[in-house]
Specification:
Order of helices and strands: HHEEHHEEEEEEEEEEEEEHHHHHHH
Number of domains: 3
Number of helices: 11
Oligomer: single chain
Number of strands: 15
């Protein structure tokens, strides 16, 4: 009996060794030959000399400039990185198989967590291959749940479907819904308010919001946001003056540009104002300037106002301190003292 058992055990051991040798991890993880590897040439990333001082401790941050997503340099860097990434992915021979498999397993109807507000049921739904889930509203009719209808479709907020619905916040009277959207995977959010009766968004919008919600109180809501880039620019100048860390490179560059403009016969103040204002605001001003220039030429070449004239000074004050009309309207909006002051 033992003589018959020994050969059987020996054959089993040999088969196990052969199996282990065939599927060994070392053989499965064999290095890819250099000839079949995809060559990748990464673009160079500039390192700046930016250093933050935290309570006397210098902390270098050479890539701080990449935090400005709207700068031409950052956009060029992103374009170069995408060119490398997509160029690599396009050379993978089985990429289409992966895409087809993911398309198959993702193509199913799915729902978000429902939320009841004011007798209405709100929920998100994705038919399967939609870029963004659609927000639906379902009411009640005669004690029965009605048919859901589309309240907000984020897929229509951008041409490429990359604008996502980041949050919804309902007012206590269920009349309004504040909602946050983010574009292109960014953590920056834009807030708008929808009138739930008309299903139309209000004209107001909030930008430069990040890591925030909307806490409704009476007819408004609390939120947190960051300063706009223009406001941060002025904050940088003020902080630099107070802390004696003014970026003199930028200051001298501005002085050089102003001198060149003056030597060319162009007033530097209107130019600076035009650079500061967004194009949506400066474009009408520019068109108005062209109209005035034409009218002055037709009337005999009346000399334009200097930068120290009352009109230019009033315009500068308007830009620096806000709209004068807005201040007047604010007085009317405060019934306790606004009308009395204007009498």
């Amino acid at each position: 009996m033992h003589k018959r058992l020994f050969p059987a055990l020996a054959l089993t051991l040999l088969a196990g060794c052969r199996s282990a040798q065939t599927f060994s991890p070392s053989s499965a993880a064999a290095p890819i030959p250099a000839s079949s590897r995809i060559a990748v040439q990464y673009p160079e990333t500039r390192k700046s000399d930016h250093v933050d001082d935290y309570f006397g401790t210098p902390v270098p941050d050479p890539y701080r400039w990449l935090e400005d997503a709207d700068s031409p340099e950052t956009k060029a860097w992103v374009t170069a990185q995408n060119k490398v990434s997509f160029g690599y992915l396009e050379q993978i021979p089985f990429r289409d198989q992966i895409r087809e498999r993911l398309t198959t397993i993702w193509n199913y109807e799915r729902f978000g967590v429902p939320q009841e507000e004011g007798g209405q049921l709100y929920f998100s739904k994705n038919d399967g291959l939609q870029n963004q889930a659609v927000l639906y509203c379902q009411g009640q009719q005669d004690g029965q749940q009605g048919q859901p209808d589309v309240l907000l479709d984020p897929n229509k907020l951008s041409a490429d479907g990359t604008t996502a619905l980041a949050g919804t916040f309902f007012s206590h009277d269920h009349r309004y819904m504040a909602y946050a959207t983010s574009g292109g995977g960014s953590d920056w959010q834009q807030y708008k308010v929808m009138d739930l009766k008309t299903r139309q968004p209000l004209p107001d919008e909030l930008n430069w919001v990040k890591v925030s919600g909307a806490a409704w109180y009476q007819d408004g809501f609390f939120y947190s946001r960051y300063d706009a880039p223009k406001a941060r620019l002025f904050s940088l100048i003020i902080d630099g003056i107070l802390t004696q860390k003014l970026p003199w490179t930028l200051v001298l560059l501005g002085v050089f540009i102003a001198l060149m403009l003056e030597l060319c016969g162009v007033s530097s103040l209107p130019f600076a104002v035009g650079v500061y204002l967004p194009i949506s605001t400066s474009a009408p001003i520019f068109c108005g300037g062209i109209v005035r220039y034409i009218v002055d030429r037709v009337r005999g070449g009346k000399e334009a106002e200097s930068e120290f004239s009352p009109g230019m000074l009033i315009s500068s004050g308007y830009i620096a301190g806000g709209a004068i009309a807005g201040v007047v309207l604010a007085m009317f909006a405060i019934p306790t003292w606004g009308p009395d002051v204007l009498r």
